[in-house]
Amino acid sequence: MSETGRRPGRPRDRRLDEALLEAGLAAFLESGYGGASLAEIARRAGVGTPAIYRRWPTKADMAIDVVEHVSEPEPIPDTGSIRDDLVAFMKLRLRTWTTPLFRKVVLPMLMEGNREGAVASDISVRFAEYRKALEARIGRSIEAGELRAGINPGRLVDLLMGTIVMPLLFFQEPPAVDQADVIVDQVLSGFAVSRDR
After folding, report:
1. Average model confidence (pLDDT) across the chain
2. Listed residue (96, 97, 112, 16) closest to 63, CA to CA
3. Using CA atoms, how far apart are residues 197 and 33, in angstroms rounded to an integer?
4. Burial letters 123-153, b for 16+ CB under 10 A, else e
5. What is the average per-residue pLDDT within 118-137?
6. Model pLDDT, residue 97
7. What is the pLDDT of residues 130-186, one digit of tens each?
8. Averaged over 88-108, what is the pLDDT?
9. How does DSSP assign the chain, residue by residue?
10. Within a 13 Å sphere around the CA of 168, how many CA atoms are in the beta-carbon half?
């Protein structure tokens, strides 16, 4: 950035940013999203809480950055077979949504976000791009004739993700990763008995 375009004030210390994110990750994994406090995170990083508030106005903002900091990029599968791509997507989701990071941080944060409009809006914006890309992939499969015309891509995503989210909401175990094929096949074919004779 040029001198004329630089924001006023002292530039942020990237090493401190990293230390705070690592301290946040440790605190969230140890105490869960609800139990971790910004004061504890600051203590672990060896700073005062103002150092956190200068970077993240809320705990949710920090938690979102912690998740993004440690998450690997997840490209949308695009092999030419929507069935195979959805199976790959489900395997990825089943692996990641059952990790301690998702159970202790992401899911409680999403639940809290449903009660707080501003938090829900921020979470939605920050995580919406992946869903848009997946829905676009489904849209291309409709155009290619792999799926019926008129299918709502968002509803297909909801049906697939519901098999993971619903058990977690009720403190049950989600399906095993090796069930991804069965889940996708059942959602794509439906559950009703065919009336064709």
Report:
1. 86
2. 112
3. 54
4. beeeeeeebeebbebbeebbeeeebeeeeeb
5. 74
6. 86
7. 788 999 999 999 999 999 999 999 999 999 999 998 998 888 899 999 999 999 999
8. 90
9. --TTTSPSSPPP-HHHHHHHHHHHHHHHHHHHHHH--HHHHHHHHTS-HHHHHTT-SSHHHHHHHHHHHHPPP-PPP-SS-HHHHHHHHHHHHHHHTTSHHIIIIIHHHHHHHHH-HHHHHHHHHHHHHHHHHHHHHHHHHHHTTSS-TT--HHHHHHHHHHHHHHHHHTT-PPPPGGGHHHHHHHHHH-SSPP---
10. 23
User: Sign (positive/negative) of CA torsion 113, 124, 73, 52?
Assistant: negative
User: In this structure, are residues 41 and 62 in contact, taking their beta carbons and an 8 Å threshold?
Assistant: yes
pLDDT value of residue 120: 57
pLDDT (average), residues 73-79: 84
Handedness of CA 126, 128, 131, 132 (dihedral sign): negative
Q: For the segment 14-38, what is each residue's pLDDT rounded down to a tens digit?
A: 899 999 999 999 999 999 999 999 9
Contacts of 103 (CB under 8 A, 6+ apart): 97, 168
